[in-house]
Amino acid sequence: MVSVILPTYNEVDNIRQIIPMIHETLVAAGLEFEIIVVDDDSPDGTAREASRLAARFPVVVCKRVGDRGLATAVLKGFELSKGEICVVMDSDMSHPVSTIPQMVRPILAGEADATVGTRYMEGGGHEEWPWFRRAMSHGAGLLARGVTTLSDPTSGYMAIRRDRLAGAGLDPVGWKIVLEAVVKTNPRLLEIPIVFADRREGVSKLDAKAQVDYLHHLWKLYRYKYRTWAEFLAFCLVGGSGVLVDTAILVSLVEFLSLTPIVAAVFAFLVAVSWNYRWNSAWTFRGVARRKRVMAYFTFVAVCLAGLLVRVSMMHLLMVYAGMGERPWYVLASLAGILAATVFNFLGAKWLVFRESGLG
Q1: 340: alpha, beta or left? (left if phi > 0; alpha if psi -120 to 50)
Q2: What is the number of other CB atoms lying within 10 angstroms of the CB of residue 327?
Q3: Is 94 strand, coil or helix?
Q4: How buried is residue 277: exposed, middle or buried, by Cβ count under 10 Å (0-12/13-18/19+)?
Q5: Cis peptide bond upstream of 328, omega within 30
Q6: What tens digit of pLDDT does each residue of 53-66 get?
Q7: For the chain, N or C: smaller number of CB within 10 Å?
Q8: Alpha carbons 34 and 38: distance in angstroms, whole number
């Protein structure tokens, strides 16, 4: 059986057209199927219209109250589906209904675990778009090249074996559920050419928020695929902010409280370490391991102190044994020490302080 999942919000005019079209196409192709409409409590009566059509067609209607979002609606559709193959497509008829059999057959034949409709291969395309929309589409695709080889990662049209979704931990942001599924299930994949049509009825959901959500989603997928490198980058960014905090505290204590620079530096170090711990816990590693927070904090401070020793030791070795004690080479020796300490601190934080944390 094939489960066709249609996420909807204010698509009443489109839903009354697309459901009969899907029925006609799949009956003609000899495929057993169900149509799952997941509606986000549309005020225009989309769910009501889909329920009316269920009297004539194999339609399952799920009306979500309180939840909203295309990607999470599709996840609900996966949960409700009974078919061995799930097809995800837009309900505004931008994805050609006539190509559903082409999307499904390679999976039924065992040639692929998933298929994705693409505008950017021979036989595919789109209607006449203004230059800025074409640029946005290609730009979004380029940004995703680090996590997928898809030629059209923002397509939104996919067929996939339902058993590939089990345990995949899908956690999409916004609307690009196809990109999420492809990256996290890593299926044997085929791309099918489609001609993307502009919607005829209703209003497009592609607003500024959707674009911001896409960038957020990409960041999560990069973190997922390149976990250690993403954590290291975030760790460095937090560390850079800590340097600013350290400097601000140092200058404030010396200039306004007349503390000596050495004493002020100790207080500045403690504040900066606390700052770094807070943000590494909340952002870089997303939580603390099972140890108690107090113990985790003091372990982090110990790691940072050891990192300071690594920095000084590296500088000493380079200045004494590599002839970098003279101007301006001592600056490079210092930078090498900072790099060594940063790597040391990161590994110490990752494996001693936040070793069981997730990325979220």
Answers
A1: alpha
A2: 6
A3: coil
A4: buried
A5: yes
A6: 999 999 999 999 87
A7: C
A8: 13
The answer to whether 227 and 359 have CB atoms below 8 angstroms apart is: yes
Q: Can you list the alpha helix ranges (DSSP code H) found in 29-156?
A: 46-53, 70-80, 100-108, 131-143
User: Who contacts 55 (Cβ-Cβ below 8 Å, separation ≥6)?
Assistant: none
Asked which of 75-84, 110-119, 140-149 is least confident by mean pLDDT, the reply is 140-149
- The CATH label, of 1.10.357.20, 3.40.50.10140, 3.40.50.620, 3.90.550.10, for the domain at 2-225 is 3.90.550.10
Tell me which DSSP letter residue 210 carries: H
Provide the pairing of β-strand 85-88 with 158-161.
antiparallel
Q: Which tokens hold the place of 44?
A: 């225009």
Angle, helices 293-321/329-348, rounded to nearest 10 degrees: 150
CA dihedral of 145, 148, 153, 156, whole degrees rounded to 10: -160
Which of 226, 241, 223, 225 lies closest to 284, judged by CA? 223
Q: Where are the domains of the chain?
A: 2-225, 227-353
Report the pLDDT averaged over residues 219-227.
87
SS3 state at 242: helix
Can you spell out the DSSP letters for 283-328? IISSS--SS-HHHHHHHHHHHHHHHHHHHHHHHHHHHHHSS--STT
